[in-house]
Amino acid sequence: MDEKTSEVNQSRQFHEVTLREFELTDVDDYFVWASDDRVSPWWRWDTFTLKEDVLAFMEKTVLPHPWMRAICLNGRPVGAIWVTHRTAEHQCCAELGYVIASQYWGRGIATEAVNLVLGTIFGDMEGLERLEALVLVQNVGSQKVLEKAGFTKEGTLKKYLIHKGKISDMVMYSFIPADN
Amino acid sequence: MDEEVTLRLCNLADVDDLYEFASDDKVSAWCRWDTYTSKEDLLNYMKTGMIPHPWMRVICYRGRPVGSISVTPYTGADRCRAELGYVLASQFWGKGIATKAVKLTLETVFKDLKDLERVEALVDVNNFGSQKVLEKSGFTKDGVLRRFWIHKGRVRDMILYSFISTDPLV
C-alpha cells in the first residue's frame, strides 16, 4: 500500500459517522454540547450547567423520544439528531432537528448525519410524506447543511416564533421522498 | 358592499343560519371538517368550539350570518403566530364578502390578541378562490409547502400566506 492510499484510509478510519439510540450512559458526552454556550444560542434550550439536569432531560425527553439518535464520530456521541411530528394528527409531516458539539463543527458531520436520516426515515416512519426543517435566518451554517443534503428552500417566514425572547424570522426547508 | 359586511360574536341563536352552509358539501370540500348532518352536532361545536374560541366571528351580510372567520393563536414560543380560517355560504361566493371579512379581521386582531405579530393561512394549491381573497387582502405568499397536509385522505401541497402586524392594511 503506497503512502497516499494509507493516508486516505487513515482519514476515512478517523471519520466514520454513524447513528444509534441514546443510553443514559451517554450523559457525559451529551453534557459536552448541552453545556456549551456556543451551541445553545441556536437552540430553544438554555445552556445546561449541571450534569444531573442533563440526565433528567435524557430520561424525560431523549430516551422516550419517538425518533432520536446519537450522532457518533468513530463510535463516540458528538451530537444528536431527531425527527418529530408537529401534532399527533399531523402524521404526514415531521420536523428535523440536530445539534453537534462545537469542536466538531465545519467537518461535514451534520451533513452526513442528515443524509443517514434521509436514507431511513421514510421507511421508519409510517405515513411520512414530508420532512421539514425550520432554521433561524441568521443560522447560515445549518442552511448550508440542509442545502447540501438536498433539502428545498420553500420560503422565509417572518416573525415566525419567539427565540430566546426575540421574535425571529425562520427559513422553511423540506425534503420529500421524490427528491431522492 | 363595504357597510353590508360586518363581523360579530357568535351566539347559539345563529345555529339555523350557520347550518345552511355547514351542511353544504360544496362548502366543506375545502374545509378540514366534514359536512354537518345534524343541527345538534353543529350546536355542540358552537358551544365547545366557536363561543369559547380566542378569536372567532360570524360574518354577516346585510345583518344575516353567512359565514365565519377565526384567528387561532399558537402557544408558548409560537404565541406570536396565529392561523386564519374562514368559511362562507356558497351562494355568497364571488361577491368580495370573504375579502371584506378578512380585511375587517386584520384591522382589529393584532390589538385583540396580545402577543400576535404574524397571521398565517394555509391554502390548497388548487383553491384559487381563497388564494385571491388573501392576495386582495394584502397577504404575502411565503411559499409552497410540499406534501404538507393530508386533506380528506389525499396528500396536498399547501401555499403558506402571511400578514405581519407591520404590513400595510389594504
Low-confidence stretches of chain B: none
Rounded mean pLDDT score of chain A: 91
Strand order, sheet with most strands of chain B = 1-2-3-4-5-7-6
Number of helices of chain A: 5
Strand % of chain B is 25-35%
User: How far apart lie the N and C ends of chain A?
Assistant: 36 Å
What is the strand tally of chain A?
7
Number of strands of chain B: 7
**Quaternary organisation:** heterodimer
Q: Compute the gyration radius of chain A: what is it?
A: 17 Å
Textual characterization of the structure:
Chain B: This is N-acetyltransferase domain-containing protein. The complex is a heterodimer of chains A (180) and B (170). Chain A contains 5 helices and 7 strands, in the order H-E-H-H-E-E-E-H-E-H-E-E. Chain A is α+β, with helices and mostly antiparallel strands and 180 residues long. A 7-stranded mixed β-sheet of chain A has the order 1-2-3-4-5-7-6, sandwiched between helices. In chain A, strand 4 (93-100), helix 4 and strand 5 form a beta-alpha-beta unit. Chain A is globular and about 40 Å long. The mean pLDDT of chain A is 91. Helix content of chain B is 29%, strand content 34%. Chain B has helices spanning 15-22, 25-28, 39-50, 97-112, 128-136; strands at 5-8, 56-61, 64-73, 81-88, 118-124, 140-151, 154-164. Chain B has a 7-stranded mixed β-sheet with strand order 1-2-3-4-5-7-6, with helices on both faces. In chain B, a hairpin with a 2-residue loop joins strand 2 (56-61) and strand 3 (64-73). The two termini of chain B are 16 Å apart. The mean pLDDT of chain B is 96. The chains are: A alpha+beta (180), B alpha+beta (170).
